[in-house]
Protein: Amino acid ABC transporter substrate-binding protein
Organism: Belnapia arida
Amino acid sequence: MLKRILAGVALALGLTGAAEAGQTFDAVKARGVLNCGVNVGIAGFSLPDSQGTWRGMDADLCRGLAAALFGDPAKVRFAPLTAVQRFTALQSGEIDVLIRQTTLTMTRDTSLGLRMVAVNLYDGHGFMVRKDAAITESKGMDGMTICLSPGTTNELVTTDWFRANNLRFTPLLQERMQDNATALQSGRCDAIGTDATQLAALRSQFTNPANFVILPERFSKEPYGPVVRRDDQEWFDVVRWTLSALIQAEELGVNSGNLEQMKGSPNPEIRRLLGVDPVLGNSLKLDPAWAANAIRAIGNYGELFDRNLGPQTPIGLERGLNRLWTNGGLMYSWPMR
């Protein structure tokens, strides 16, 4: 009797495995293309080039996921979304996954019908000001007008920090970060508040980037990562473990250039990762070469970071916290066995 009662409660709440199994995963596989939500346009993350091809770390992660699913990184449809639009688009089913500089927080994970998957970039909130303002620390920003995007953690972080330090500011709220960049350059606001990587990306596109300074303090933890709906644990697993495979590849010294050669390695971890031993692909209901296809398409995590955000790009970021754990960073793949 008790088992029947508990089963009825689980069914009513949608908690059974059958209710969650395969809903999004099956739809994506049947459609043959991945609908991936990205930023409307920010350098280094997701920005169309002169040919209309989406470039950047987030866009590449979408391609890597498509390669894992279909063996073809081109089987992705990009949906550009503002911060205000992003969660609604995912909740409504317009997109299958959101990969768009989204901070993973407890309230987002527990109250939106969504699931935060895993961290693909560690960041922190900062401020960018005009160099001629001669400000070296954020406490010199009292009374400034600060450009912010509504519906972001940055709006809350800025408000909390100014209140805690008994300082005043005037918010100028605009959905598109590019509009905030234009407002700062034209003098409509005195600063932009957002995550440090985005500040560096915005500054790289300024007409005179040397005229603007990113202040050194960081005021929050801003771990970015993919977001999916709660309707499908199988889909959650595919997204999580595809990202993990890119990190694992860097840990094992596997990259897009040596992948075929590494398939001959006697190392069992490498053989599982690259599908020589098909156990990992089988567990995800994917081709045994799912991870190899993703790595071939976009490289391992280090290649992904360096190509889009690294020191040799206009963004010019060091890895910092995004180094592998073996090099003093926080990037760490769960054991893939």
In short: Residues 20 and 232 are 5 Å apart (CA to CA). The chain has a mean pLDDT of 91.
